Structure formats: C-alpha cells, structure tokens
Fold these 2 entries.
Entry 1:
Amino acid sequence: MIKSKDDPNYVFDEYKGYTIASHKNNVVEESIDNLIIVYPPKEFPNHGFIVGLDDSKLSGPKKAIPHNMEDAKAYIDWVVKLGEERAGKVKSEIPKPQPRRGRKM
C-alpha cells in the first residue's frame, strides 16, 4: 500500500488533477506485470483504481489485461468526459428525435 508520494518504489505523475502511481519496475510497453494506480483528486492514498485489473467476477481469480501509462491517461480522459457529460457541460451523443412531418393533430 502506498502511504505517501515519497515512496521510492513508485514514480508519481499528475494528469488532469488525478495522481498516477507507476511502479518503478514497470516497462513502457503494455504488460500485465505493470502496476499503475490512478487516484482521483483528493483521494490519494486512500482510494485508487488499478489500471488493467478486471475484478468484476464474483468468484475466481482476477484477470489482468496488458496496460501502460497511456492506458492510465485514457482511463482518466474517459472518467473526466463522463463526469462532464453527467454535469451537462458537454452535449451527450444521444441524437435528438427528428421533428414530425405531416399533419399535426
């Protein structure tokens, strides 16, 4: 567990207000052995998301997916965009219904 940003086993980066903790032994290319944790603003070190770890199963082992720092930044971009859409700052991609043509009743 990471306690502070002074942990010598991790390299820390800030991206769009999020903290990315990348283990010092990570490689640049995508790998299931990379350990990257994304912390939302003001949530470090208590609540983080482990990039590339699928723990959606109710039982059995967790599944690791090859990932790298670009995947961590893509995840943050997705979370930020979703938050903006929910806040109504960005128009949703759901098309509006077309106006009816023909007689009005």
Entry 2:
Amino acid sequence: MQTNVNTQAYPFAWLDELIEITLHPTTIQLKAITPKRLEEVCDQLPVATKEVEMSLRTQIFGLDKSNVKTVVELYYNALQELRWQATQNLTAYTHNAPLAKAGKIILSVLDELHQRITERYRVYLPKEESHTFLPAMLFKLLIKLSGDQISILVKAAFQAGLIPARSLRQACRLLAPYLSTDREETLSANSLRSHASQPETPDLDIVLNYLEKVTAIVKGYYRRGRR
C-alpha cells in the first residue's frame, strides 16, 4: 500500500482504505496483519497527511473566498469522519496490543492534521457544534424491510438530497442507531453502506414496490387537494 495522494481523485483515499477497510475491526484479513506491517503503516502516516495538506493547498490556489471555503469544508468533513471511524476502530482493538498501538498512532496523526487544518483555515470553517444524545432520547424505528433493502433506500434518499448529510457514510452513521428490522434489532452504519454498493435484484424489486405504493398514495393526496 503506497501513498500517492496526488495521483488519486480523492486525497484521503489511502487513509480511507487504511481506516475503513484494511484495519477495520470486521475485516477478515485483520488477524493476518503482522506487527512489522503495522509499523510500516505507521511510518507512512506522516507522508499521507502531508500529501493531504499539499493537495488542499494546490486545490484552493487561485480560488475566490467562497470556493476556498467549499473546498476546505470538504477536506475538514472528510477528516472528521475518518477521525470518528479511527476512534471506533481503536475501541475494538483493546485485546490486541499491536493493533491498539497502531490505532493510537493513527488517531494521534489524524488529530494533529485536524489541528493544523483548523488553525490554518479557521476563517473558512464553521464553528464546531457539540451534540449530546441522552439515552432516553434514543428511539428505534421498526421498518418492514430487510437490512439490505433499508440500505438501498438510505442510499437513494441520500443521493436524492432527502438526507442532509455530507456523505453516504455520514448518512448511514446518523440513521443506523435509530433503525431496526424484524430480524435485526440493531443495524450498523458500515453494513448499511456496504450493502448499498451491490444491491441484489430481489431487494431492489421489493424497495421499488414500496416506493410505487408511496407514490400512488401521494398522488392521491394531490388529486384530492385539487378538488
């Protein structure tokens, strides 16, 4: 896994693959990663974050203030999501010393990058908000669809602009804690996002069938409203 952000369309591609796939706690190959490989990965982290900063400076060069703000916020939001996932990963590494050590280093490097971007581009960033969720406020919405079918619906709703999230990953993370099915009391954000990438035809047919019913019902409201 070589870092070369400048040749990739997405400047966080290497970090994203590392945190979301390679070192994700549910990755099947995780146990096969040796301590030596983890050391190599940690050695590459400063290079990767430096390339992200260089990519950001290159992209905003010559842009007006409004466009600079848009680009900076995209980088900032992507970094925030990676920091969140790295924190989740580290929590799951507690019984694996080499992974836990690597997880702490990854999170520390991301925190340092966050600090540098925040300090350098503070004028373009919105004020950070603090969100506190009390256990009593958490409720579950039981949906008569499977987890795979819900993931299709969430992805489509996000792409249609119905979910005010910055990315599909964030949309899944926001919704997953509140969704459940007849068979699954809890749905994970990662499963929602991964299942939506390769939907099966039977699941698509079921989702379309429900959407057609909803469309017909809404059209009925429209017709009654015109009387």
